[in-house]
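As a warm-up, study this chain.
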Amino acid sequence: MEGSQLQSQNENQDGKLFIIGIGPGSVEQLTVRARDVILNSDYIVGNGTYLDQMDSLLDKQEIVRSAMGKEVDRAKKAVHLAKENVVSMISGGDANVYGMAGLVLEVAEHEDLDVDIEVLPGVTAITAGASVLGAPIVNDFAVISLSDLLTPWEVIEKRLDAAAAGDFVISLYNPKSRQRHSNFSKAIEIIRRHKDASVPVGLVKNALRGDTQDYIVTTLGEVLDHNDWVDMSTMILITNSESRVWNSKTGERIITPRGYQRKYDY
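Now compare it with the structure written out below.
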């Protein structure tokens, strides 16, 4: 990789670990840097779903495949392999947004392993979904996961209440799963304590994933009418008191003003 400190494959030199956010799940949405690192790694470590999404780039590398729920084992394997190899740990979206970056660094810290680690950013669901909806997050926003697997629901409730009270645009990740059916409706109930029913809401499923992408523009008062449509691949954007829907020539778009209208005449 020209102009990079990345060593070529199979050289017996000190290794390096890259934690890579692969974005929405297609090679086209990778950064150029992430693509080059994946191509030049000795090992690629990741969840099987994400490895399949990068299949066209996986040829000469050794592949370490694991399943959901094996995140700690995956992190340990990547850290130890990186002592003597160039390793890419791939993570969906951005590795810092509910991704693998934190766990991998924690494992390296806990085991006191002096491994060279670099985190490469990727497109996360909120920015991917926002691009589909128009311009809904150009002002202050909060990102909150509704998964209570690692965060107690009581903590999630406090964060939802605070973000709604502050009139933040709120992005909800992981709204529903097979085990969690009610967290999404509970979250909407909390947010409605502070936001009007007329506030625009966007729901985006499989953002930037080709023909599987779909979206709905609705309101906070009517969003639960689409409860059955929501799943783990859906990102929800609940906007603020100034947001509005523009019926453009290409469909409904959400605009959240940045504040220029208060300063400039346009």
